[in-house]
Design brief:
Length: 606
């Protein structure tokens, strides 16, 4: 693996102006003679991180996430990078300002009072009274005051960045694998740079021409109806649960007025099964595909006021204990299980060692010393110093480098304490200095209040793109019509919250709307494979299929039992996409999808 960063203009019209650093990782091919065209992996969000996943455990077995790329690496390099404004590429994070506001709130009676106090800094722009609106307003103003041109954080610039990054690494032609928002970026590359794109995989596609928020109210309902439809297509399931579509609709709608009492599997407290509870289960299928097997039985039991299966599937560890009884016994199974247990323990220990090693690095030790020193200050000075620390690297005209850290030490500490801290950073390598800023970001994420459903994303770039390209295209009348057309409206509570929140934040987020031509069908003859999870609740297939409208050489493959991001959830999806990239002119072999169909759990015999 080779890691590094390239420096590119924030505004391509001002090449010598403010710069952004794009961090990348090249996962080199296992082949001694790799093919010249790599796979460029485009992460989602917008505002997520591809680099961040590389040191993460994939699952409860501590499998490393990086192992997912192995099939692709057998023939060619895989290039991962964080898009501009994302975690490791000049992050536009709101967490530092959220953290600073939280500290300041110890000195004011309410957020409204705080916002009035901030008006002297932010000007006369209208302020909302909700925490979410107020916090994001402050974040946007702060990012601008620190030099960021939020209008430059958009999909066309992300596409230009992608080509420039790959060119700097010596790649003139490349393949694309995009997931979620990454598929929107992939489509932009197909439109703007067709001669450099060899093949494209759209995993959980976000079509350019679709009003996403107008369709969002249908997402959870469509996923549940797909499960019920799959039961109807299975002879045993259909016989065990007759007339299930009508029964499901009736049950979900009745739960709004007549919730069923249940004991919370986590807290042991009294709770209720409501339409929101069913929606949470539907969303959980993204992480746990086996859940779909139990949905008909859950519906069947809840009709009778029975919560046994509902409680079981919401109990932590339930699915780890399940054994697939549809697979024939293997005489070597005991040995295979012991080997797997050993591999799990090795992976776990490697993961634990990796995390522990980070705490021994000079950057981490220095930061802990700084925090301890700040905590000894009087309260007002402590709050100011923590805010100063959390926004290091965001200041206008300042780089995330050694000089910025020196300035912070000099203005925050005195005497021997300042001298000691300065000596430590002077002895750090450039890599360790960058790690200081990474550790500060980690501190911000852990300390800032979790007030935004975009948590885990870099909110500054997330809203710059969402507001410019998605919410600006939203037709409120069409959205309301979608809500009114639902057969199970109680499942749309999450959509109502998401849409209203995005509307509120975008009403004050300072970016211009995308031009109309960015919402037209992408026309291309580049070989394209689109993968869609049957139970995806974020880019469901009824929407995702529309990405193929203008693609003359495209194939859509639906992945049974899968949710959002099939690459992460299914070896079958990885095998199909790898085979396609190796031979994009051939029809992909998809027989492995048959084994993914859910084996529905039937009610116990009377």
């Amino acid at each position: 693996m080779t890691c590094g960063y390239v420096t590119l203009p924030e505004n391509y019209e001002i090449p010598n102006g403010r710069q952004v650093e794009l961090s990348y990782a090249v996962l080199h091919s296992r082949s001694q003679t790799p093919l010249p065209d790599p796979v460029a992996f485009l992460h989602g969000g917008p505002g997520s991180s591809a680099i961040d996943s590389l040191d993460n455990a994939l699952n409860a077995d501590f499998d490393p996430f990086i192992s997912l790329y192995e099939p692709l690496r057998q023939t060619r390099d895989v290039v991962l990078f964080d898009q501009r404004g994302s975690k490791f590429s000049n992050r536009l994070g709101c967490a530092p300002f959220f953290l600073g506001i939280r500290n300041l709130r110890t000195q004011v009676a309410s957020l409204d009072q705080l916002l009035r106090r901030l008006e002297s800094v932010t000007g006369d722009a209208p302020l909302g009274t909700s925490d979410i609106l107020g916090l994001h307003f402050v974040c946007a103003i702060a990012l601008q005051n620190h030099g960021a041109d939020l209008n430059q954080y958009n999909t066309p610039n992300n596409a230009r960045d992608t080509v420039n990054l790959l060119s700097s690494l010596g790649y003139s032609e490349f393949n694309i694998y995009g997931i979620s928002y990454g598929t929107r970026l992939a489509q932009q590359l197909m439109r703007d740079y067709p001669d450099q794109v060899r093949s494209v995989v759209l995993d959980s596609a976000l079509p350019y021409q679709v009003d996403v928020f107008a369709l969002t109210p249908r997402f959870f309902e469509a996923s549940l109806l797909n499960v019920i439809e799959d039961c109807g297509a299975d002879a045993d399931c259909a016989a065990a649960y007759p007339n299930l579509p009508d029964r499901t609709v009736a049950l979900v709608n009745s739960l709004g007025q007549n919730p069923i009492p249940v004991t919370n599997a986590l807290s042991g407290m009294d709770a209720q099964v409501t339409p929101d509870s069913i929606a949470q289960l539907i969303g959980y299928m993204n992480q746990q595909p086996q859940l779909s097997r139990y949905f008909p039985l859950i519906i069947h039991e809840l009709e009778q006021g029975i919560t046994a299966t509902y409680t079981a599937v919401t109990t932590p560890g339930f699915f780890a204990q399940q054994i697939d009884d549809t697979v024939a016994p293997n005489p070597f199974e005991a040995s295979a299980l012991r080997a797997r247990d050993l591999q799990v323990e090795i992976n776990r220990q490697l993961y634990v060692n990796t995390v522990a090693a980070q705490t021994q690095r000079p950057a981490f030790q220095w930061l802990m010393q700084v925090i301890q020193a700040i905590e000894a200050f009087p309260l007002a000075q402590e709050n100011r110093s923590f805010f100063d620390l959390s926004t290091l690297g965001y200041e206008f005209g300042k780089l995330r480098d050694l000089d910025t850290l020196r300035d912070f030490v000099d203005r925050t500490f005195e005497g021997e304490q300042a001298a000691d801290l300065r000596t430590q950073i002077n002895q750090m390598s450039a890599v360790e200095i960058r790690n200081v800023y990474f550790q500060i970001e980690q501190l911000n994420d852990a300390s800032a209040p979790r007030l935004d459903i975009a948590d885990g994303l870099s909110r500054g770039v997330h809203y710059s793109i969402v507001c410019r390209e998605l919410m600006a295209f939203n037709n409120i009348d069409t959205t309301l019509a979608t809500f009114e057309s639902l057969v199970m409206p109680g499942l749309s509570g999450g959509a109502q919250f998401l849409i209203s929140q995005r509307q509120a934040v975008c009403s004050i987020w300072p970016v211009e709307s995308a031009p109309p031509n960015e919402h037209t069908v992408i026309a291309s003859d580049i070989p394209t494979l689109a993968l869609g999870g049957r139970y995806d609740t974020q880019t469901p297939n009824f929407m995702a299929r529309q990405a193929l409208d203008g693609l003359s050489r495209a194939t859509f493959v639906e992945m049974p039992s899968s949710g959002h991001g099939t690459f992460v959830r299914s070896q079958c999806a990885r095998d199909i996409s790898t085979a396609f990239i190796n031979r994009p002119d051939e029809v992909p072999e998809t027989s492995c999808t048959a084994a993914l169909k859910p084996q529905f759990v039937l009610p116990p015999a009377p």
